[in-house]
Amino acid sequence: MERLDADGLAFLVLRDPCHTATRAVEKGPTTGHALTGALAVVTDVAGRVLLGRSRRGMLELPGGKSDGPEDFAAAAVRELAEETGLIADPADAYVVTMLGDDIHGIPRLTAIVRITAWSGTLSNPEPDKFARWEFFDLHTLACAGAVFAPAALALDAVWPGVIPDLPPALSYPLAVEQPPVPGEPAEAVRLRQAMAQTVIEGGWAPSEAVQGALRSVPRHRFVPEASLVAAYGGGDRAVTTRRDETGVSISSVSAAWLQADMIEGLRLEPSAIVFEAGSGGYNAELIAHVAGPEGRVVTVDTDPWVVRRTRRFLAEAGSGRVTVIEADATLGAPARLVPRGGFDAGVITYNCRDIVPAWREQLAEGGSLVLPLELGGYTWAITFERRGEVLHARRFTYCGFVRDQGQQACAVPVVPLLDGGLTLRFDDGVAAGTKGLEEALRGRRHEVATGVTMGAGAYFGSLQLYAATTLPGFCRLRAQQDGGVTAIAKGRDAPAILGDVSLAYLTYVQTRHGELPEDEEWEGVVRSFGEQGPQLAEQLAATVRAWDRHVRAGDDDQHADPVLTVHPAGTPDHLLPAGDLLDKERSRLVFRWPGRNGPLPAPARCTDTDTAAVTTGGS
């Protein structure tokens, strides 16, 4: 024992005699109380996985028990050769996950080994155990029939979600480096080029960098449960990868045209470092391709399943330039991953009800942020540029995404009416009082024709945004059943405004029929109920006319975007620019629309009708 003193601080150092000849010892003779083994996951040049049809009537992966002190990678390579005749180097075998279970009361530990290269000719050296070996397309595994449970879990470890409804098992993913595994069918290449061409011809990918990403990144490798046709989908369809218990999509790979449009909005330079909120892998890999070999993407998601899936798919088919983090993306990226000066760009891939401070704060000055923002219940992918503490909108794209699952997630106030036949949604605020409104809905209906007509395929997005951001009391009226007092079709909704025991909403009545869609025409009509109904109808109709005159200027259906700035919550009113203010919890949005300060057009004709005399019209 020693007593030492350091600047008045006394401490004791206690030393026991040191043991010598440290060694490992056994408690006694070993017993056969556990099993260890390895399963090999092998794919061919078309990306199909190797499975054997065993004599027990199920599909199995190559593999078996470990042999003595043999490591798991070597065991998988050996079993592959013994069972299939294929030869692999242990250097090309990577243990990606350890699975633990208890079969017949005996603990079992299975290493899932991904083999990235092999040679030889497929054969069946053990015909007493297997009827044959063959390669299977990944999207067929969900209906392949009986699969040996450890093999099914192994397939899920490499391609999470490829086989649904698996039995529970303990899984220990290993953080190992694995090179991308090549292989895809020629059909995938053809479909990818066709998808890219569709997106390019639609004007969504004008830059060569984004065009190259669409042509190069294998989209189907990030949705292995989908067929090639579904994965590429012509460029205009999203692929749902997960649903909640009600069947609502909570995770998906977005339509390629929308991904291209949002990436174009980022205005990426080579070597850009980009933040992505909401993972999946494919969109991040597109961004990484555009940013180039020196670029990097940090993608964050709160769902452990999505994170595990993204990491595995990027290991299989990624560039190695994407970092996947499990965290709440509304808090931004972990501080250690934020580059000095901030991210060059950021993209949010789920519907946002608000713009959280971290996304702005972690963005470099002049950097671009693209996010799908909900305004009045409708969604626009808006491209912003950071200038100090203010975000300035550059462009708007009407779209839709899955909803946020993080701290921003919250329920939208919905008020049922007429025994649930109608609902009112208040997407940007608390539910307004509706006492007495049901009685008004059973009474006299008032109509105002706006005089604004639209042809087939007309774009309503800018009208919805204009109404949602300029009208007090804005909400959405939705029909839950056909017919009824509103004559709104089931499942459709209409922009609406709520007053004192009164309601007005916008619908459309066909005014011209024709053999071809381009010969047809509809007119906007405002219908209202309640004592204040006529005034509300005039207000809503005047808004439609103002939109038609100033926003939808011209006959070519071109629409002017508003000037939008986003300010931090708490910004005093006197520091905000003039315009229509929309307050959210964490931000203040100011919209300035063309013509908002000028006189509105004079009201058009109006009629009063009884509810029973109403002609049915679509919403």
Number of domains: 3
- For this structure, the CATH topology of the largest domain is Rossmann fold
Which strand order do you get reading across the main beta sheet? 15-14-13-16-17-18-19-27-29-28
Any idea what the shape is? globular
Overall CATH class of the largest domain? Alpha Beta
> Mean pLDDT, rounded to whole units?
87
**Residue ranges: pLDDT <50 for 5 or more in a row?**
598-619
In the CATH hierarchy, what is the superfamily of the largest domain?
Answer: Vaccinia Virus protein VP39
Radius of gyration: 31 Å
Distance from N terminus to C terminus (CA atoms, Å) equals: 88 Å
Q: Give the biggest beta sheet.
A: 10 strands, mixed
Give the structural class.
Answer: alpha+beta
Number of separate helices = 12
CATH architecture of the largest domain: 3-Layer(aba) Sandwich
Keywords: Cytoplasm, Hydrolase, Methyltransferase, S-adenosyl-L-methionine, Transferase
InterPro entries: Methyltran_FxLD, NUDIX_hydrolase-like_dom_sf, NUDIX_hydrolase_CS, NUDIX_hydrolase_dom, PCMT, SAM-dependent_MTases_sf
EC number: 2.1.1.77
Family: Belongs to the methyltransferase superfamily. L-isoaspartyl/D-aspartyl protein methyltransferase family.
